[in-house]
Amino acid sequence: MRTLEKRDVLPGADVAAPVTLALGVLFALAVAFAYVLSLADGVNPPDWVRVVGLVWLPLGMAGVPIGYYWSRGGAQRRLAEVGLALGVVGAVAFAALVIAVG
């Protein structure tokens, strides 16, 4: 075992932390976009804008937990924790939207 390696740290953990943060931010923005599309009457963007804006819902929902798991124990673990927190807030807001509109 090398001296720089920590036990139970996956390779690429330092790269996964910023990716987790980016996915958390994009997921939260996609939830905000879903709110605007669902609740604002005057907003009707073209279909390609909807696809680009909402593609981050499933990618963030799946990517944030995977990225957090991958980055645990790494040097930039705090970035992943912020991304996870944004993902949890976004998931709660999305659930509230589905309950309110659904």
Automatic annotation (TrEMBL):
Q: Which residues cross the membrane?
A: 12-36, 48-70, 82-101
Keywords linked to the UniProt accession:
Membrane, Transmembrane, Transmembrane helix
Q: Does the keyword Transmembrane apply?
A: yes
Would you tell me the protein name for this molecule?
Answer: Phospholipase_D-nuclease N-terminal
What species is this protein from?
Nocardioides flavus (ex Wang et al. 2016)
